[in-house]
Description:
The protein is of the alpha+beta class.
Amino acid sequence: xxxxxxxxTNIALIKYWGKENEELIIPKxxxxxxxxxxxxxxxxxxxxxxxxxxxxxxxxxQQASGVLKKVSTVLDLxxxxxxxxxxxxxxxxxxxxxxxxxxxxxxxxxALAGAASEAAGxxxxxKDLSRLARHGSGSASRSIFGGFAEWEKGTNDEDSFATxxxxxxWDIGMLFIIVKDAQKDVSSRDGMRRTVETSPFYAGWLNTLxxxxxxMKQAIKERSIKKVxxxxxxxxxxxxxxxxxxxxxxxYWSADSMKAMDAVRSIRKEGYDAYFTxxxxxxxxxxxxxxxxxxxxxxxITYFDEEQIISAKPGPGIHVREN
Length: 323
Ligand code: FM0
Protein backbone atom coordinates (compact mmCIF):
# COMPACT_ATOMS: atom_id res chain seq x y z
CA UNK A 1 0.00 0.00 0.00
CA UNK A 2 1.38 3.35 -0.94
CA UNK A 3 1.24 6.21 1.50
CA UNK A 4 -0.19 9.71 1.51
CA UNK A 5 2.50 12.36 1.36
CA UNK A 6 1.96 15.97 2.47
CA UNK A 7 3.76 19.03 1.13
CA UNK A 8 3.13 22.65 2.07
CA THR A 9 3.15 25.60 -0.25
CA ASN A 10 5.87 28.21 -0.20
CA ILE A 11 5.96 31.91 -1.04
CA ALA A 12 9.13 33.33 -2.53
CA LEU A 13 10.70 36.36 -0.88
CA ILE A 14 13.27 36.46 -3.67
CA LYS A 15 11.36 35.39 -6.77
CA TYR A 16 12.08 32.77 -9.40
CA TRP A 17 11.24 34.46 -12.68
CA GLY A 18 12.62 33.07 -15.92
CA LYS A 19 14.21 29.87 -17.16
CA GLU A 20 17.66 29.26 -18.55
CA ASN A 21 16.56 25.80 -19.72
CA GLU A 22 12.85 25.29 -20.31
CA GLU A 23 12.95 21.55 -20.67
CA LEU A 24 14.92 20.82 -17.51
CA ILE A 25 13.47 23.80 -15.61
CA ILE A 26 16.82 25.38 -14.80
CA PRO A 27 16.12 28.95 -13.63
CA LYS A 28 17.91 32.17 -14.56
CA UNK A 29 18.35 33.08 -10.89
CA UNK A 30 18.43 31.67 -7.38
CA UNK A 31 15.25 32.17 -5.36
CA UNK A 32 14.45 32.04 -1.66
CA UNK A 33 11.13 31.21 -0.04
CA UNK A 34 9.24 30.62 3.18
CA UNK A 35 7.20 27.42 3.46
CA UNK A 36 3.83 28.00 5.18
CA UNK A 37 1.54 25.91 7.35
CA UNK A 38 -1.85 27.13 6.04
CA UNK A 39 -1.85 25.67 2.53
CA UNK A 40 -0.84 22.14 1.62
CA UNK A 41 -1.51 19.18 -0.63
CA UNK A 42 -1.88 15.49 0.27
CA UNK A 43 -1.13 13.04 -2.52
CA UNK A 44 -1.11 9.30 -2.98
CA UNK A 45 0.16 7.48 -6.06
CA UNK A 46 -0.74 3.96 -7.12
CA UNK A 47 0.99 2.31 -10.06
CA UNK A 48 -1.63 0.09 -11.68
CA UNK A 49 -1.16 -2.32 -14.59
CA UNK A 50 -4.84 -2.05 -15.56
CA UNK A 51 -4.60 1.66 -16.43
CA UNK A 52 -4.19 2.81 -20.03
CA UNK A 53 -3.05 6.32 -19.09
CA UNK A 54 -2.05 8.33 -16.02
CA UNK A 55 -5.00 9.58 -13.99
CA UNK A 56 -5.32 12.53 -11.65
CA UNK A 57 -8.18 12.73 -9.17
CA UNK A 58 -7.99 16.18 -7.59
CA UNK A 59 -10.30 16.91 -4.64
CA UNK A 60 -12.39 13.92 -5.68
CA UNK A 61 -12.75 14.94 -9.31
CA GLN A 62 -11.10 13.16 -12.19
CA GLN A 63 -9.11 15.67 -14.24
CA ALA A 64 -9.02 15.84 -18.03
CA SER A 65 -5.85 14.41 -19.53
CA GLY A 66 -4.83 17.91 -20.71
CA VAL A 67 -3.93 19.09 -17.20
CA LEU A 68 -1.76 16.03 -16.62
CA LYS A 69 1.35 17.23 -18.41
CA LYS A 70 3.30 18.34 -15.32
CA VAL A 71 2.13 15.26 -13.42
CA SER A 72 3.22 12.82 -16.12
CA THR A 73 6.61 14.56 -16.40
CA VAL A 74 7.30 13.68 -12.76
CA LEU A 75 5.79 10.19 -13.05
CA ASP A 76 7.91 9.44 -16.14
CA LEU A 77 11.11 10.29 -14.26
CA UNK A 78 10.09 8.06 -11.35
CA UNK A 79 9.15 5.20 -13.69
CA UNK A 80 12.50 5.55 -15.44
CA UNK A 81 14.45 5.43 -12.15
CA UNK A 82 12.43 2.56 -10.69
CA UNK A 83 12.04 0.53 -13.89
CA UNK A 84 8.24 0.71 -13.71
CA UNK A 85 6.28 0.33 -16.93
CA UNK A 86 2.70 0.91 -15.74
CA UNK A 87 0.58 4.04 -15.57
CA UNK A 88 -0.41 5.57 -12.25
CA UNK A 89 -3.47 6.87 -10.44
CA UNK A 90 -2.72 10.06 -8.55
CA UNK A 91 -5.14 11.08 -5.79
CA UNK A 92 -4.62 14.58 -4.53
CA UNK A 93 -6.35 16.82 -2.01
CA UNK A 94 -5.60 20.52 -1.83
CA UNK A 95 -6.11 22.08 1.58
CA UNK A 96 -6.93 25.73 1.19
CA UNK A 97 -8.89 27.42 4.00
CA UNK A 98 -11.41 29.15 1.71
CA UNK A 99 -12.32 29.14 -1.96
CA UNK A 100 -9.23 31.26 -2.37
CA UNK A 101 -8.25 30.42 -5.90
CA UNK A 102 -4.84 29.53 -4.56
CA UNK A 103 -4.31 26.38 -6.57
CA UNK A 104 -0.72 25.73 -5.72
CA UNK A 105 1.64 24.06 -8.11
CA UNK A 106 4.39 24.30 -5.48
CA UNK A 107 2.73 22.09 -2.87
CA UNK A 108 1.03 19.93 -5.51
CA UNK A 109 4.10 18.97 -7.49
CA UNK A 110 6.24 18.57 -4.37
CA ALA A 111 3.69 16.20 -2.83
CA LEU A 112 3.54 14.30 -6.12
CA ALA A 113 7.32 13.91 -6.24
CA GLY A 114 7.26 12.51 -2.69
CA ALA A 115 4.25 10.24 -3.21
CA ALA A 116 5.38 8.88 -6.57
CA SER A 117 8.88 8.04 -5.38
CA GLU A 118 7.42 6.46 -2.23
CA ALA A 119 4.98 4.35 -4.27
CA ALA A 120 7.81 3.26 -6.57
CA GLY A 121 9.94 2.15 -3.62
CA UNK A 122 12.66 4.70 -4.32
CA UNK A 123 14.40 6.15 -1.30
CA UNK A 124 15.45 9.55 -2.49
CA UNK A 125 17.47 12.09 -0.56
CA UNK A 126 15.90 15.52 0.02
CA LYS A 127 18.21 16.84 -2.66
CA ASP A 128 17.00 14.32 -5.21
CA LEU A 129 13.38 14.88 -4.20
CA SER A 130 13.89 18.59 -4.78
CA ARG A 131 15.39 17.89 -8.21
CA LEU A 132 12.44 15.65 -9.05
CA ALA A 133 9.84 18.20 -7.87
CA ARG A 134 11.63 20.87 -9.90
CA HIS A 135 10.81 19.00 -13.10
CA GLY A 136 7.09 19.35 -12.27
CA SER A 137 7.21 23.02 -11.32
CA GLY A 138 10.24 25.10 -10.43
CA SER A 139 8.82 26.53 -7.22
CA ALA A 140 7.98 22.97 -6.01
CA SER A 141 11.70 22.32 -5.55
CA ARG A 142 11.57 24.60 -2.49
CA SER A 143 8.50 22.98 -0.88
CA ILE A 144 10.55 19.90 0.02
CA PHE A 145 11.89 21.92 2.96
CA GLY A 146 10.22 23.67 5.86
CA GLY A 147 11.07 27.23 6.86
CA PHE A 148 13.28 29.23 4.52
CA ALA A 149 14.72 27.42 1.49
CA GLU A 150 16.92 28.56 -1.34
CA TRP A 151 16.72 27.07 -4.81
CA GLU A 152 20.21 27.22 -6.22
CA LYS A 153 19.88 27.68 -9.93
CA GLY A 154 22.81 25.45 -10.86
CA THR A 155 23.67 24.76 -14.46
CA ASN A 156 22.23 21.32 -15.16
CA ASP A 157 19.81 18.67 -13.92
CA GLU A 158 22.19 17.48 -11.19
CA ASP A 159 23.05 20.76 -9.51
CA SER A 160 19.75 22.67 -9.63
CA PHE A 161 17.88 22.03 -6.35
CA ALA A 162 16.78 23.68 -3.11
CA THR A 163 18.50 23.56 0.26
CA UNK A 164 17.29 24.66 3.70
CA UNK A 165 18.43 28.10 4.86
CA UNK A 166 16.80 28.60 8.27
CA UNK A 167 14.00 26.78 10.10
CA UNK A 168 12.04 30.03 10.63
CA UNK A 169 11.40 29.16 14.28
CA TRP A 170 11.18 32.84 15.13
CA ASP A 171 8.64 35.61 15.08
CA ILE A 172 7.66 35.71 11.40
CA GLY A 173 4.34 35.05 9.69
CA MET A 174 2.34 35.90 6.60
CA LEU A 175 -1.18 37.16 6.03
CA PHE A 176 -2.81 36.35 2.71
CA ILE A 177 -5.18 38.89 1.21
CA ILE A 178 -7.39 37.02 -1.22
CA VAL A 179 -8.72 39.61 -3.65
CA LYS A 180 -11.96 39.07 -5.53
CA ASP A 181 -11.42 40.79 -8.85
CA ALA A 182 -9.23 38.24 -10.60
CA GLN A 183 -7.30 39.45 -13.64
CA LYS A 184 -7.23 37.57 -16.93
CA ASP A 185 -4.92 34.63 -16.39
CA VAL A 186 -1.36 34.46 -17.65
CA SER A 187 0.22 31.35 -16.13
CA SER A 188 3.56 31.84 -14.42
CA ARG A 189 5.10 29.55 -17.04
CA ASP A 190 3.87 31.65 -19.98
CA GLY A 191 4.40 34.95 -18.16
CA MET A 192 8.03 34.31 -17.31
CA ARG A 193 8.77 33.07 -20.82
CA ARG A 194 7.25 36.15 -22.43
CA THR A 195 9.16 38.39 -20.03
CA VAL A 196 12.52 36.72 -20.66
CA GLU A 197 12.00 36.86 -24.42
CA THR A 198 10.65 40.38 -24.80
CA SER A 199 11.04 42.64 -21.75
CA PRO A 200 13.91 45.15 -21.84
CA PHE A 201 13.57 45.36 -18.05
CA TYR A 202 14.46 41.69 -17.59
CA ALA A 203 18.21 42.43 -17.67
CA GLY A 204 17.74 44.98 -14.88
CA TRP A 205 15.89 42.41 -12.81
CA LEU A 206 18.68 39.87 -13.17
CA ASN A 207 21.43 42.42 -12.47
CA THR A 208 20.25 43.19 -8.96
CA LEU A 209 19.36 39.68 -7.89
CA UNK A 210 22.59 38.56 -6.31
CA UNK A 211 22.57 41.64 -4.10
CA UNK A 212 18.92 41.10 -3.07
CA UNK A 213 19.66 37.47 -2.30
CA UNK A 214 22.70 38.10 -0.12
CA UNK A 215 20.92 40.97 1.67
CA MET A 216 17.98 38.65 2.31
CA LYS A 217 20.16 35.90 3.76
CA GLN A 218 21.80 38.41 6.08
CA ALA A 219 18.36 39.76 7.12
CA ILE A 220 17.19 36.22 7.94
CA LYS A 221 20.31 35.64 10.01
CA GLU A 222 19.52 38.81 11.95
CA ARG A 223 15.86 37.77 12.27
CA SER A 224 14.94 41.28 11.19
CA ILE A 225 11.34 41.55 9.93
CA LYS A 226 12.05 45.10 8.83
CA LYS A 227 14.91 44.00 6.59
CA VAL A 228 13.32 40.75 5.35
CA UNK A 229 10.13 42.63 4.50
CA UNK A 230 11.83 45.60 2.86
CA UNK A 231 13.97 43.41 0.61
CA UNK A 232 11.07 41.07 -0.27
CA UNK A 233 8.78 43.97 -1.17
CA UNK A 234 11.44 45.59 -3.33
CA UNK A 235 12.21 42.30 -5.05
CA UNK A 236 8.54 41.59 -5.81
CA UNK A 237 7.96 45.07 -7.23
CA UNK A 238 10.98 44.62 -9.49
CA UNK A 239 9.69 41.29 -10.75
CA UNK A 240 6.27 42.74 -11.49
CA UNK A 241 7.86 45.71 -13.26
CA UNK A 242 9.40 43.33 -15.81
CA UNK A 243 5.94 42.20 -16.99
CA UNK A 244 4.96 45.78 -17.92
CA UNK A 245 7.90 45.92 -20.30
CA UNK A 246 6.98 42.64 -22.02
CA UNK A 247 5.51 42.49 -25.51
CA UNK A 248 2.57 42.21 -25.36
CA UNK A 249 2.64 43.82 -21.91
CA UNK A 250 0.74 42.30 -19.01
CA UNK A 251 0.31 42.59 -15.27
CA TYR A 252 -0.89 40.35 -12.47
CA TRP A 253 -2.18 43.35 -10.52
CA SER A 254 -5.87 44.09 -10.24
CA ALA A 255 -7.53 47.16 -8.71
CA ASP A 256 -7.89 45.26 -5.43
CA SER A 257 -4.19 44.29 -5.48
CA MET A 258 -3.40 48.02 -5.54
CA LYS A 259 -5.85 48.60 -2.73
CA ALA A 260 -4.17 45.85 -0.71
CA MET A 261 -0.68 47.24 -1.31
CA ASP A 262 -1.91 50.69 -0.25
CA ALA A 263 -3.47 49.19 2.87
CA VAL A 264 -0.16 47.59 3.81
CA ARG A 265 1.66 50.91 3.33
CA SER A 266 -0.90 52.65 5.56
CA ILE A 267 -0.57 49.99 8.23
CA ARG A 268 3.18 50.49 8.08
CA LYS A 269 2.74 54.22 8.63
CA GLU A 270 0.83 53.36 11.79
CA GLY A 271 3.97 51.74 13.11
CA TYR A 272 3.61 48.03 12.24
CA ASP A 273 6.36 46.23 10.35
CA ALA A 274 4.21 44.97 7.47
CA TYR A 275 5.45 44.45 3.92
CA PHE A 276 3.86 42.90 0.84
CA THR A 277 4.81 40.45 -1.86
CA UNK A 278 2.87 39.17 -4.89
CA UNK A 279 3.21 36.24 -7.27
CA UNK A 280 1.72 35.37 -10.66
CA UNK A 281 -1.80 36.38 -9.60
CA UNK A 282 -3.66 39.27 -7.95
CA UNK A 283 -3.52 38.10 -4.31
CA UNK A 284 -1.27 40.01 -1.93
CA UNK A 285 0.76 38.44 0.88
CA UNK A 286 1.80 40.42 3.93
CA UNK A 287 5.08 39.65 5.68
CA UNK A 288 4.97 40.56 9.38
CA UNK A 289 5.68 39.33 12.88
CA UNK A 290 3.52 36.42 14.04
CA UNK A 291 2.87 38.40 17.19
CA UNK A 292 1.50 41.32 15.12
CA UNK A 293 -0.71 39.17 12.87
CA UNK A 294 -3.99 39.60 14.72
CA UNK A 295 -3.55 43.37 15.11
CA UNK A 296 -2.67 43.72 11.41
CA UNK A 297 -5.60 41.51 10.46
CA UNK A 298 -7.88 43.85 12.48
CA UNK A 299 -6.64 46.72 10.34
CA UNK A 300 -6.96 44.79 7.09
CA ILE A 301 -10.60 43.98 7.71
CA THR A 302 -11.38 47.68 7.56
CA TYR A 303 -10.44 47.36 3.86
CA PHE A 304 -11.50 43.77 3.06
CA ASP A 305 -13.97 41.14 4.28
CA GLU A 306 -12.72 39.00 7.11
CA GLU A 307 -12.89 35.80 5.04
CA GLN A 308 -10.49 37.37 2.53
CA ILE A 309 -7.69 37.39 5.10
CA ILE A 310 -5.88 34.14 5.96
CA SER A 311 -3.13 33.84 8.58
CA ALA A 312 -0.14 31.59 7.99
CA LYS A 313 2.91 30.64 9.99
CA PRO A 314 6.10 28.92 8.86
CA GLY A 315 5.35 25.35 7.84
CA PRO A 316 7.20 22.00 7.73
CA GLY A 317 8.91 20.19 4.89
CA ILE A 318 7.53 17.23 2.98
CA HIS A 319 6.48 14.22 5.07
CA VAL A 320 4.38 11.09 5.07
CA ARG A 321 0.94 11.97 6.38
CA GLU A 322 0.09 10.48 9.75
CA ASN A 323 -3.32 8.87 10.09
O1 FM0 B 1 7.54 31.18 -6.66
O2 FM0 B 1 7.05 27.08 -14.98
O3 FM0 B 1 7.05 27.32 -10.28
O4 FM0 B 1 9.53 32.01 -6.99
O5 FM0 B 1 5.51 32.20 -8.08
O6 FM0 B 1 6.11 25.58 -13.22
O7 FM0 B 1 8.52 26.26 -13.17
O8 FM0 B 1 4.78 28.05 -11.14
F1 FM0 B 1 5.70 34.94 -8.84
C1 FM0 B 1 5.96 33.96 -9.63
C2 FM0 B 1 6.51 30.37 -9.85
C3 FM0 B 1 6.83 31.78 -10.06
C4 FM0 B 1 7.76 33.07 -8.11
O9 FM0 B 1 6.68 29.68 -11.05
O10 FM0 B 1 6.72 27.97 -12.73
C5 FM0 B 1 8.30 32.00 -7.20
C6 FM0 B 1 6.51 32.71 -8.92
P1 FM0 B 1 7.13 26.68 -13.55
P2 FM0 B 1 6.26 28.16 -11.22
